[in-house]
Each structure stands twice: as C-alpha cells, then as structure tokens.
Records
---
Amino acid sequence: MAVIEIKDLHKTFTLTDGRKLHVLNGITTEINKGEKIAVIGPSGSGKSTFLRCLNRMEEPTSGSINFNGEDITSNNCDINKVRRKMGMVFQHFNLFPHLTVRKNLTLAPVDLKIMTQEAADERAKILLERVGLADKIDEWPERLSGGQKQRVAIARAMAMNPDVLLFDEPTSALDPEMIGEVLDVMKELADSGMTMYLVTHEMGFAHKIADKILFIDKGVISEQGTPDEVFDHPKQPRTIEFLSKVLRH
Amino acid sequence: MKKFLALVLVLILASSAFAAENPAKLKTTSQLKTEKLAAQRGTVGQYIAEDLLGDKKGDLLTTYEKYVDAVSALLQGKVRAIIMDEMPAKRFIASVEGLAIMDEALSEENYAMGFKKGNAELVAQVNKALAEIKADGTLDKIFAKYYETFLAGDSSSIKPEDIDFNKGAKGGKLVVGTEAGFAPYELKVGSGFIGIDVEMCAAIAKKLDKELVIINMNFDALPMAVSTNKVDLICAGITVTEERKENMDFSDNYVVGAKQVALVKADDYEK
Amino acid sequence: MRNNYQSRKALSRGDLLLGLVGIYLIYLLYASGFFTAEAWADFNRRFYQNFVKDRRYMMLVDGLKATIFMTSGATLIGLIVGLILSVIRVAHKGGAKIPVLNWLAESYITVLRGTPAMVQLLIWNFTIFASARDLNTQYIAILAFGLNSGAYIAEIFRGGIEAIDPGQMEAARSLGLSYGTSMKRVVLPQALRNIIPMLFNEFIALLKETSVAGYIGIDDLTRAGQNIQALTLEHSQPLVMVAIIYLVIVMLLTKFVSKLEQWLSRGRRR
Ligand SMILES: Nc1ncnc2c1ncn2[C@@H]1O[C@H](COP(=O)(O)OP(=O)(O)OP(=O)(O)O)[C@@H](O)[C@H]1O
Ligand SMILES: [Mg+2]
C-alpha cells in the first residue's frame, strides 16, 4: 500500500527580481510502507525542494500529494497533523539549543498533548537508547559532537512515532569520522522496517539500504530503478555522467 | 572609577579654564553694534540685539535658553554684553561679582500678560482684577517686597508656601505658563514658585475665584502654549511689542518703562 | 566595560592615556589656584548654596524621580507597542496575509524613527493633547517617549527574532507544532537572550532622551539643575552634579547589562 503518492508535482520559485525559477517540473512517484527510497542527482536539481514539498515545508505550485489516502495539498487539510506523522531530519541537525536533549525529544509530544511528560520521558529514553545516546539525556545540544547531534535529531524525528522519515543529506555537514555512526543508526532504522525517503550523496550507503533509487535532474525523475539497475547499469547519459563524477573518488 | 573622576574634573574645568583678555573697554552702547552679544531666546533682548547688530547678527549674536548660561558666557569672555531687562540684570549684579550695567538704557518696555488671540472674555476679567490690585496697593506691595529682598541679594527669605494659590477655589483653575528662571519675576524654589509675576497672578486668581496653577516651560515655548490653549495666559515678564500683538492678545500693562540694558563685565566698562 | 583578560594586563593604553589626562588636569587645577584654601572654601560655599541650603538637593531628587518615572513608563509603553509591531512584521514575513497591517507597522516605524523625539514631544503636547489641560504633562511625555521608543523596540524584537536560524522554526514546524507554538517555545526563548540586553540599552538611551522634557514644562533632572542655576546664579556646579547623577545611573545600568549578558550566554553553554 502506498504511504505517499505524488502526482505531477511542480514547484516554481518567484525570485526577488520577478523572474520565475522552475525547480520541479512534474514529478510522479510513490513510496510504499517499509520502502526505502534514495534520491540522488546533481546539485541544484531540486532534490531538497522535492523532499520539502512532501511535508509542505515548501508549498508545491501544482500537483497532488496523497499521504495515507489524504490529499495534503488541499486547503482543508490540517498540515500540522500530517507533519506529526512525517519525521524530518536536516542537514544541519537544527536541534533546539536552549533545551536539553530530553526536552528536544519531548517538546512536541507533550505540547501537542499526545503524551504526558512522564510517558514522553520514557519514550525519549527508549529512542536515545536506540541511537546509542542514553547517557546524554540531560545534556545540552552544544556539548555534543556533530555525529551525536544528528543521532539526537533522528531520535527527535522519531518521537512522534512517524509513518515515514524524510532525510535531507543527513551526513554532509559531518566530519568524515562521524559519518559512520549516523549511517549505522539509519541502517538500524531501515532494518526495523521504517519507511524512509533519503536525499544523499553517500552512494555506497544508498546502494546498501535502498529499495529504489530516484535520479532527479532538472526537476524531473530522469531515471529510477533498483540500486543495481541504476548504479551498475544506468541507461541515461546524464546518469552515467553524474555517477562517473561522484564515484571517481 | 578613574574614567569617571577624569570626566568630573574636565567638566568643572571646562567652564572656568580659558578666558580671553580684551583691550579697549566699553563706554557707550553704540559700541555694541560690532560686538558679540547674548540674549535669552525669544525675548525682547534678542530683538534689540538683532536691531543693533543688523546684518552681522548671524555672526555676533548668541541666544541662550537660560540667563545663567548667558551670564556664564559673558564671564568667560565668549560674549561682550547681554541685552536683558534691568530688574533681573540688577539681581545678577547683586549676586555675581564682576558685573556691571551700562548706564544708557537701550529701550524702555512695558510688561503685560499674554492671551490666546481672541480670548476677549478672559482678558477683560484679568484686566478688571489687575485694576483692582493696582488700586488697592497690592501690586505695589509685591514689587516692594522683591526690591527689598532679591535686589539686595537675599534669595531665601521668600518661601513659595507663603504664597496663597487659592487651592480648591470654586471657579476652577487659572493655568499660567511661565519660565521660572527670571528673578525677581519668577523663580522655582524647591517644588514651588515665587516671584512678582507669580504673586500677582495669585492675587488675580483670587479675584477671579480661581486656583492658580503654574506651568514652568522654556520661554520660547510660551507663545505656542497659550495659542494651543495649554495654558490660559502666559506671564513671564513679557514685553508688549507690535509684532507680538499680531499673534497674541495682551492684558493692560503691569510694568511700565522697564528698561532694556546691557549687562557687561565690570572691568570691561568705563563710565 | 573591561573584561578579565584585559584587566589582568599590567597597563593598557587606555590606562596610560587616562593617567596623562589626569596629571594634566591636576596641573591645570593647580595653575588656576584651585588648591588654595580660599578656592576650596569658595567651592564649599557654592556647594552649600547650590545643594544644601533650603534643602535644594530635594529639587534634584524630585527631578530624578520625574526622570525615572517618565523613563520607566515610556519603556513600558514602548515594550507593548514594540511587541505588537514586531509580531505584525515577523508574522507578515512568516507568510501571514496581513499586507495592510504590515504597511501600517512599517510606516509607523519609519515615521517615528525618522523624526526627532523632541519634535514628537512638542507635537503631542501642543497639538494632539493641546486641550487636555488636566492631564499631568508627565503622562503626555510618557506617551510621546513610549510611542517613539516602541518603534525602536519593535526593531530590537524583530532583529532578535530574525537573528535566529530559520532552521529552528522549520525543525519545530516539522514536528507538527503550529507557527505560534514554534515561535513561543523555540524561537522567542532563544531570541530573548539577544533582546534583553538591547532593551536595557534602549532604557539607557531613553533615560538621557527624556532630558528635553523641560521644554513642555516638566521639571525632570536636567530641568531641576537649571532651576537651581536660576536660583543661585551659579553656572557650573548644578549642571556638573546633574551630569554626575546621569552618569552614575548609566554606569550602574551598563554594568548590570554586561553582567546580564554574561549570565545569559553562560546559560547557553551549561
Ligand atoms: N526559497 C528559494 N527561493 C528561490 N530559489 C530557491 C529556493 N530554494 C531553492 N531554490 C533554488 O532551487 C534550485 C533547487 O534547489 P534544491 O535545494 O532543491 O537543490 P538540491 O538538488 O537539493 O541541491 P544540493 O545538492 O546542492 O542540495 C536551486 O537552483 C536553488 O537555488
Ligand atoms: Mg539539497
């Protein structure tokens, strides 16, 4: 069953000088329960914009997005409710620096009256255990390393018990020696059956965990398939060119 | 704290450190036409100084918000003379050493209270009251009291609490605007006011069965205050001039022939 | 204010300069005969006349009360106005459809920051409230200074909020929190760290700004000094005393603000 169905998604930015920038030019795809999809493509091709449209961090210009059967682009959709079920992990972590790790995880569930503080604390403990940071529960974010911050951010995204997790280049702001610990956590999530949308430049990791690769170029999906198909037998010249560039080193 | 100390010293010194010498002494007021002069902003002294200086007023005339500032400029040699009313000038002579008034008066003026243009009713009431206190000697007594004290250098024997402001009068309030830096006409003492104008207004308020309220502002804000009804009348040793009559109505005069004089440094004046 | 690192150095250039200025001033005082017994006695006599005789220091105390009353009242109004204006402007930028309100807020800020506070004070007193005679003039001053400072405080709030990484708002929204809750629970608590010290600076600026209130008939601290001048015909001492009082208050506040800043930024690193 499809968790998210995207039909003919367009996004146009109006620049300050009035020019229009067509970033997404008709994307149609879907993600099924438990599926892991990796989105790759050249810089500026619209990968982040696409991901951000999925929970309407960015307003799509046209097209439809169905989440669990509900059209979330319609006016009478309560987007705040939808977002609870779509966790998001950012390139720069975006932890709340004025709150402890515990509060970072419990702020939303408690404020939205989904859990009591006690229940949320309990869940925070379990989630931190899962990302290997149980001992940091009362720590301030600034005192954590980059890798630890991103693991806390993943735990925070899980705090509302989402149906899908959206990742936008979760490791590209990290020092190389910290990438592994974050990827390990993501691998564990993938193995546990989480539905995941992942924009990444980590081709090896994408190859290892993804069920499907989307290659986005100039705002359209120009090639898609299993990792084997896309990485080992790419058909489009743009894909071949892109892969030869990123895999060379 | 060191910074603080240095600053205090600078401030104290700045006002007294540098004074210039001037060779040729003043003899007649006609010499003033080419000298640096001072006056309080918006007063008749300023207009007389402007007439004296003609085109050169832009370079030679400095106007001050307060008389004390002008006197201090005079003592420091920044200006050669202050054009002002004789009575307050005499008070300066009595209290500050080294000042003199040039014998020759520059003009003679009449003082009156100012009203919003067209406020004939209040002008008539005040004129009637003024006539009464002139007739029964009240006004003369007030003048005499200040001549004996202020112009003799005694500034503490008159207390504001001794002046009857007719508090709680049934006829409402008489709001008077003044600039309380013009002794012996008006002066702020503690949280109250004293002065010839103040006591005269108190006597008039009493006649009108009103409570006197004094509002103390800058002299050049007074015409604005009376024309916008902020105050009922202004009383601050105001000279009656034709120009002012165009914008303001005046009461009858309560001082006639007040002289405008030049206040100079004693050692700069040769009789 | 100097920090620990600097004060541990033996002698800074500032100290040296201050020392030289001090020596020069003492020399000037000496040369002008300040250290003679007569000069000292004269200084004391004038001091007695200006501040002690007839309890004249009470004029300064009353003036100070007026100054502090006006400054505090104006800051309070400024906070309320500033909060409303900045909410409008920030919400507009955050996508709320309030073009007219935003235009009004922007115009308000432009006009009140673009004209001298003194001119605004005169307009409020002599034009807008011309007929409100029984109203205490101090309230008019509070209103005038408060509305003026509201424009500055609005910009302080807005600047403080916009200095927070937009990623904070996004992260909060991505968890399903509403715009208002995200603002309240995530953005504002962080923005306040920058905002609070700046508000105290605004208070300090306002404290000095109210010294023009004498113009509309309020005997504030500055005016109290001038009233003593008129009384004693003494030029320097009353004004120097007034300057010292302002300076002491401002220095105390400045010290407090820098302590506060330290404390606020320590909270973040804990
Ligand atoms: N808010 C915006 N306003 C205007 N243009 C934007 C905005 N956000 C993105 N863009 C533009 O849209 C295009 C696609 O941006 P996007 O961030 O989606 O690319 P990307 O594929 O994620 O690239 P990268 O790999 O560098 O992250 C870029 O040209 C970018 O400059
Ligand atoms: Mg991107």
---
Amino acid sequence: MSKQPIDMDEELGMFDKPANVKRLLRIFYTCVVLLLIVDIFYHKHTIFAWEGYFGFYSVYGFVACVILVIVAKYVLRPMVMRKEDHYDD
Amino acid sequence: MTINALPPALIMILGGLLLPLFKGRARQALLLLLPVISFINLLQIPHGSHWILPFLSDQLVFGHVDKLSLIFGYIFHLVAFLSAIYALHVDDTIQNVAGTVYAGAGIGAVFAGDMFTLFVFWELLTISATFLILARRTERALGAGFRYFMVHVAGGLCLLAGIMLQVAETKSTAFGLIGLGTTASWLIFIGIGVNCAWPILHPWLTDAYPEATITGTVFLSAFTTKTAIYALARAFPGTEELIYIGATMAAFPIFYAVIENDLRRVLAYSLINQVGFMVVGIGIGTALSMNGAIAHAFNDILFKGLLFMTMGAVMYRTGKINATDLGGLYKSMPWTCGFCIVGAASISAFPLFSGFVSKSMVMEAAAHGDMRWVWFILLFASAGVFHHAGIKIPFFAFFSHDSGIRCKEAPPHMLLAMGISATLCVLIGCFPQYLYSLLPYTVDYQPYTTSHVLAQTQLLFFSALAFTLLLLAGIYPAEIRSINVDADWIYRKGCRQIYRFCRWAFDGINEWANRTFAQQFTKLLGQFFADPGGNLQKYGYRLLIETSGIEGQYEQMARKISSRSRSASYPVGIGVLLAVMILALTSILLILM
C-alpha cells in the first residue's frame, strides 16, 4: 500500500538495466527472424491455400496489430474518449 | 427414481444462505468445504432427469444431467472452489453469501431440465451478482450495480416472455433444442443474448465488472456469460446468426481494450472477445465447433479468472488499477507477475497453454466450413487478444516505467488460488486429452501438429514484434486518464435526454393543470359559493343590463342584492335554489339528448 520514494541503494531490478532490456530485445528479434526463416523450409499442411504462402501468418499478425493500434488510436479514441467525470454530472 | 444425492444447486445455495450463522474460522472452513461437498454430491448423480416436481400443468426438473451440463457443472465447481480460496480473507457477510449463492445459481441453471427452473436460477444469478458489485460500497459501484440490475432484469423479462410464448405454443416446458423461427424463440434468444454480452447489449459487463469488489469480479467473470453459453449450446446450436454475432464480439472489444486505462476493464473487454469465439463455435454447430466452444468456455473460466485474480492482487496491495498509476511491480510481486504471464499466455493461445487447445478447434471448424471472412476476423481477434490481454496487461502492470510503488507480494491464499489456476492452464495446454474426454461430442482432434504450432507461434511473435516496434517508435497510444463511451451511453446519457424531455412535457402539463384547476377554478368556485344566491342574481342582473343597454343602476342594485343576501331575507333557501338549478340543467340535457 505504501508509495515510498525509490531507494537508490536498493538492488536494481533486472529490467532497470538498459543492457538487459537490450539483450532481451536482441533475443526476441532473433526468434522472430528464425520463425520467418523456418517458413522457407517447412511447408504447412493447411485448409485454405493462402495459409501456406510464405510468411502469411507472420505478415497477418504484424499487419493486424499495426492496423489495430492505428485504428484504436486515431479513429476510435477521438470518437469515444471523454473526461473521467463524463457521467458524473 | 430415487438416488442418494441432493439436487446439484442445493448445497451451494442453502449453504450460502446459512453462512451468516457462522463466524471466523468456521465460516472460512464452510466457504471452502461447500464447493467440495457439492462436487462430491454431483458425482453421485447419474445421467438422466431427476427431482421432477409437478408444477401447474407441467413439471419442474431440478437435475437434468448429461455430458453438456456436466462439463459446465465440473468447471463451475472448480472455479467456485478457486474463488473461495482467493476470497478467503474477505470477512464480509454480504460478499460471502452472494458469492456462494451466485455460484450455486450458475450450477442450478446448467442442470435445469425445464425452462421455469432455468429462469429462476437465471434471475438468482442476477440478484446475487448485483450484491457482489454493490459490496464494493463506492458511489460508482452503486451506479454500476444499479445499471447491471436493470439491464439484467430487462433481459430476464425478455427471456420470461419468450418462455411463456414457447410453452403456450409447444405445450412443453422442457429446456432443449429450440432453434430460431417463432417470436417466442427470438425472445428467448435475445434474453440469453443479454447475459452473453452481445454487441450493443454488452456494456453492463464492461461497466460493472471493473467496479465490483476485488474478489467479486473473479466470481463474476466465470458464471453469467458461461451460463449463457451453455444455454445457447443447448437451445440454439447451428444458428447462423450466432456466427456473425460472435465474430463481431471477437473483433470490436479489442479496439476498446487497446485504449482503455483501467486494467480490469481491459480484461472485461477481452472477456467479450473470448466469449465471441464460443458464440461463433455454437453458431457453426458442427461437432468440432461445439466441442471447441465448450472447451474454450472451460479454459476461459480458468485463465480469465486467473487474470482477474492477478489484477485483483495488484489492486489489493497497491489500491490502484489504472495503467497510468502502475508499472515496475515485477520486483515487488514476482509470483503474481509470473502467474499473470501464464494467464496471458493461455488467453493468447500460446502452444502448451490452455487457450491453444480450444480456440484452434473453433478456428479449424470455421475453416472446414469454408467461412473465409469469419476465419479472417477470428485470426485478427487472435492476434489482437495477444496484443491487449497477452502483452498490455502484464506489461503495464508489472513492467513499463517504474511507478515507484513498493508493496508486499500477494497474500498466501491468493497466491495459492492463482498458482492452482496457472498450473491447470499449463496442464490442460500440455495434456488436452483429459479435457477432450469430458466434451459432449466424440471428436478426434489433434491440436499439436507442426503446421499449427508453427502458424500460431509466427502469428503471436509478429504481433509481439508489432507491439515492440510501435512502443519503441512512440506510436503505441499512451494511457490517458479518461473513460471511453460505449453503447451504455444510450442509457447513461441518452436516457437522461428522454428524462429531460419527459420532465419538460409532463411537468408542463402538470403545472398547467395545477394552476388552472387546483388554484384558479377552485378559487372561483369558492368565491361563487360564498354567496351563491346573491352572486347568481348579480350575474343575471349584469347580463340583463349588458344585453338591454340600460346603464348606471348596476352598482346600486348590486349593493341591494348583497345586503339582502347577507340578511338572508329570501323566501327560499340556497339549497332549494341549487336543487332547482340542477333540475333545470338535467332537464335541458335530457331534452337535448
């Protein structure tokens, strides 16, 4: 319950060190690239033809999330966002 | 048939109502024991219909047991037990009773063999749930609880009207396959839809769940929507409309979830998103899709409950739940953080976690039915749910910027409940055959094919890549202290306009009537009857003067009349005068008619 000022002497958490964050990101990017490379060598057994295209799931996942965020931020938010006391009057 | 067991819902509901008689440790023990005893009781009940009571011209069936009702019965007992562990610290009679009765009502509804019994448990769900919201005892919770109650009462009445018409048409109260067609079936369909949080009917969920108590929300997330899923699976399998409703449910809440600040409200939106997958599965109506929908309901109860538990624990320790106030808690609450990540991985359907083995069944059923657009929307929703529930929830609560909050780890009983839930999520994900054996239809389905695992992993990793890059580029929407209006605007703001209009129109009429009749008219009557004989003569005399044109003598005559009537020197009394007048009036009326 307490919000104390951050104690500078306390042990820094794992993600307080930028080097660790950088390392984690590097591992993550490597995984992403590897997953894309696998698609060249492994042909999926699929129901729809397009599922077997190179990188279909990767591209769809990426594009879907970018569209999701862009639409939510630039279309939905201006339409629906109100002050916190909107309903309070 | 006589069996040595009690009706499935009886132990929880009766036990729940007896809780106020116990205090302290005894009550805690009872809270934990009730789901266990009730579960053991359930295991004694064979398949078939039991506890049949005559009712009017038909019958009530308190225990209709088959594979469909049993799997819901099992998971309801399991989650009731887990929620009881999680809520062990709560020493509040209202919450203790409401939570237990609420779970009992859910159990009663899925074992109801006739529509009237279903309706009674359906309403009991609403009433007990309302108390779980009100028990937060804040002004916002009071408003949200009131709205929750009103919406569900409206939905319940819609259901009841449908049941009445259905019974009148079919002469049977049995709750089974209904199918869309008649007015009755539509009313039942929409009545269930309210509890299922269909689009536009949904805002009770995102309005009330984040306002309920910390432990109340854990209970709430499990029963109401899943009871509705059960009812749809029983009455409306293969109804095409459900596919479109479900696809909409899966897609639209994720946009809201991305910009929502209250993390429990983010989870409420993702709850609608997950229920969307189940609704699509029921709409497709094949054995695979039905199994998928039901398996997903089973899994969702566990991982959504787990996620609400972790956010509840954060709230319990920090008193905050907005993403803008939290961050960096992984140092203070490492276990809660870990369990949250397991829940996030499960809802995102990572291979080896529970969501993977059930969501994929619905997806595959949609593909087999060649429903391309539905499949694309569901795939979009799969990527989106990872984005908002899988990454956003753990990231903003436990990582992100350091909020400076240093608190204790969640209390042991909360950790235990979260730990069991998380373990089950992983176990079901790794050994899905045990869950599959409980499903109502026999289907040979293998979730772990190389193609499928690879496809899902690629989808999720590239969703995560999108999140990472958008966040690093500063495009990801910053959390803002705000609220986002939803369809509840219709009754929270729109209805105020109706209210204002009514106040203007009806209050206007009321005021006019008050002025005219209550004040002016009675005043005139009073003046007249103060001296009816004299006044009548004066009016008659004035009329005479005005028509004849003779002037000047009115004042003198009026005074004379007044003094005469004051001294009461009339040959006939006022009563006689009035009687004559009424007789004259009625005779004129008679002649005219």
